Amino acid sequence: MQIFPRSLNKLPLIAAIAINVVGASVTFGAWYYLTPKNFQVGYAPVQPVPYSHRLHAGQMGMDCRYCHSNIERSAHAQIPATQTCMGCHAMVKTESPRLANIRASWDTGKPVEWVKVHKLPDHAYFNHSAHLNAGVGCVTCHGRIDEMDVVRQDQPLSMGWCLECHRDPKPNLRPKDQVTNMEWRADSAKGWTAPDVHPPQHCSGCHR
Amino acid sequence: MSDYNLPIKELGETPLVGDGTTFSSITETVAHVTETKAPRAWWVGFLIAVSFTGVLGMAIGYLFWTGVGVWGNNTPVYWAWDITNFVWWIGIGHAGTLISAVLFLFRQKWRTGINRFAEAMTIFAVMCALIFPGIHVGRAWYAYYMLPIPNEMSIWPNFKSPLIWDVFAVSTYFTVSSLFWYVGLIPDLATLRDRAKTKLRRTIYGALAIGWRSSNRHWSNYERAYLLLAAFSTPLVLSVHSVVSFDFATSLMPGWHTTIFPPYFVAGAIFSGFAMVMTLMLITRAVYGLKSLVLMKHLELMNKIILTTGSLVGYAYAMEFFIAYYSGNDYERHVFLYNRASGPYAWAYWIMISCNVLSPQVFWFKRFRTSIPVMFVVSILVNIGMWFERFVIIVTSLFRDFLPSSWGYFRPTLIDFGIYAGSLGLFFTLFLLFIRWVPMIAVAEVKGVLPEADPHHGEHAAHEGEDHNHDEAEGDVAAAPAE
Fold first, then answer.
1. What band does B12 get if pLDDT is binned at 50, 70 and 90?
2. Which residues 6+ apart lie within 8 Å of A7 measured at CB?
3. Which of A87, B135, B259, B313 gets the most CB atoms within 10 Å of its CB?
4. Cα–Cα distance, A36 to A105 (Å, whole number)
5. In chain A, what residues touch B207 (CB-CB under 8 Å)?
6. How many other CB atoms are there within 10 angstroms of residue A135's CB atom?
7. Which has the closest alpha carbon to B429: B35, B34, B54?
8. Does B206 sit within 8 Å of A4, measured CB to CB?
9. B203 touches chain A (CB under 8 A)
């Protein structure tokens, strides 16, 4: 007695192909899409103060370190205090409604709650000063901040992305006096050869 | 017929089935179990087993929620019951492939009575074992780290580490054992399909039997596939536990860093696997009345293997001590003399020695080798002893670190017990389901060792004028696998 139709004879072949195709697509899809490259890049949260880097760092040409002081000396890159803002804004644009939160912070002494954009996992011990002192420019990891009205994450900051540079750092190095220069390019810098640096590639280099 | 008792030289000295066993009585005995209501004992066992599986689920859930701190593992004992259970289960999972593949290649026909059973046990034991690598770091969501999958971290498993080869070895073993088991099942599933009375049964067993019609070509393909799978699995019997032993042997821990580990682990694995098959077989044989298919002869042969492997393991224990002494290495000597044979874990060590080395020695005597109560007790003692062997190897090598300042003592927690008991629950749940729904003895293969399956069967009888026997035999040969 026939229980199953003849057409089911093709089932094993179809199932074998389907399992392989689905397995490969799931692996590839997870590898490609479930990554910071897909999920993190472009993260641009609304900040409590509509501060524009394009205006300050781009048009007015302020050096990054005017506000983010000590970035080449500290392991942790600072966000400027309200006092840094008020150093200028006590005199310019004193009535601007866009600066209301800064003035409120200045009056009450409560810091502005900026939203962190570039997040690293707790188990990655990233040292900001080590990178600047090796000659890695701001633009390498943060992108063209001087062209952003709202700061957004430009690079994936994934472990694979870190390792790419740790394995071959030379293309991302520049003279130390050029680290904050957004427009510096290795091909237009005469007589520049990247120094030999050996960033760690072992686990405990970043995970202690 | 008196013919059943006549020796057939190709099949050994005595028939491998009981008196009066016929083709139809084999089918009837085995298929009957899956076609009638389960006995009360089955339900009692099943409910207990399922409850323990629930305990396993809850304990693992709590582990994932809280972290590995719920276990007794702590500095310096980073591995304890988790890896002990893993190695224990993997070891138990060795008997199936040894019986089905190695004994098949060596033409040990007595394996037919127990191979289905042992293979099923293997698969379920490996399933239980596979839980532990997945949960032993407490972060199941990182289990994919064990596999070489491309990822955004650009990190790969270390191919120089035995741990990755452990994953490969165990998963290969699981795949090949499952395939082997399933291929062997196909003719029997077809038998169940043909006997089915309801549409549902016919459809399910029909789907599982993938169109088996017992044609000559089917049998010829089947035999070839079975032989190939046996050839694939044979090296796995040796490789899987060798690789598991590398997890320890390639480290520089005194007590682990030993070249004897691979053969010692393989012998221990076969030892514990046979003991587990024996325990389960004795119960099932009594409950389901399989005494005509699993003879005392089978049990006695298994006891001989238990005696052999148990003595091999005993030799390995002695050799470890000798090498620790002979090496002149203080740390090695300390591990064996003061951390194992004496010291706070001496009780575990001596349980191991008495269960694994001493208890099987009773099998030197035929009287004990053929006594069901004795072999039942010994098989359980061996299971206990082999669990303690892994516990002794892991914990007593770790608990006294090189610096006395970092010495510790491992105490299991309730969750440790829950996960271990739960894994036993899962094992027995799967096993009871297997007994209930799948032919637990390889019907087609056992038919192959019946005297009637011999192509020359009845030739001498023909001289005595009983040629109806001859015709019957000729007709039935096609229904049994060609040997």
1. low
2. none
3. B313
4. 34
5. 4
6. 20
7. B54
8. yes
9. yes
B469, part of any domain: no
> How confident is the model at residue B466, as a pLDDT?
45
- Which residue on chain B is closest to A39 by alpha carbon? B152
Q: How far is A99 from chain B (nearest CA, A)?
A: 40
Angle at B462 between CA B458 and CA B468, to 5 degrees: 75
Integer Cα distance of B120 and B93 in angstroms: 9
State mean pLDDT over B405-430: 94
- Decide if pLDDT at B204 tops 70: yes
Instruction: Tell me: pLDDT of B103 over 80.
Output: yes
**Cα-flanking dihedrals φ and ψ of residue B365, to 5°?**
-100, 130
Q: What is the CATH number of the domain that holds B155?
A: 1.20.1630.10
- Establish, for the pair of chains A and B, how many residue pairs have beta carbons separated by less than 8 Å: 34
* Euclidean distance between CA atoms A48 and A26, whole angstroms: 40
The answer as to whether B68 is a domain residue is yes
Interval B386-401 mean pLDDT: 93
Determine, yes or no, domain membership for B467: no
Between residues B61 and B477, which one has the greater pLDDT?
Answer: B61
At B52, the amino acid letter reads F
| ipTM of the prediction | 0.72
- pLDDT value at A132 more than 90: yes
d(CA A147, CA A154): 12
Quote the DSSP letter at residue B145. G
Can you name the residues that pair with B74 across neighbouring β-strands? B77
Q: What is the 3-state secondary structure (H, E, C) of chain A?
A: CCCCCHHHHHHHHHHHHHHHHHHHHHHHHHHHHCCHHHHCCCCCCCCCCCCCHHHHHHHCCCCHHHHCCCCCCCCCCCCCCHHHHHHHHCCCCCCCHHHHHHHHHHHHCCCCCCCCCCCCCCCCCCCHHHHHHHCECHHHHHCCHHHCCCCCCCCCCCHHHHHHHHHCCHHHECCHHHCCCCCCCHHHCCCCCCCCCCCCCCHHHHCC
Q: What does the pLDDT read at residue B82?
A: 93
**Global pTM?**
0.85
| Average pLDDT of chain B, as a whole number | 88
Considering only the beta carbons, identify the residue of B152, B207, B210 that sits closest to A158: B152
> Model confidence over B302-345: pLDDT tens digits?
999 999 999 999 999 999 999 999 999 999 999 999 999 999 99
Picking from A142, A127, A146, A141, the residue whose alpha carbon sits closest to that of residue A199 is A127
Place of tokens 């089905």: B100
Is residue B234 in some structural domain?
Answer: yes
Return d(Cα A49, Cα A47) in angstroms, integer.
5
The alpha carbon torsion through B432, B433, B435, B436 (nearest 10 deg) reads: 120
For chain A, what are the domain ranges? 11-38, 72-77+118-206
Range of the domain at B224: 17-448
**Total domains, chain B:** 1
Residue A5 CB neighbour total at 10 angstroms: 7
Minimal Cα–Cα distance from B222 to chain A, Å?
17
Q: A173: which strand partners?
A: A136
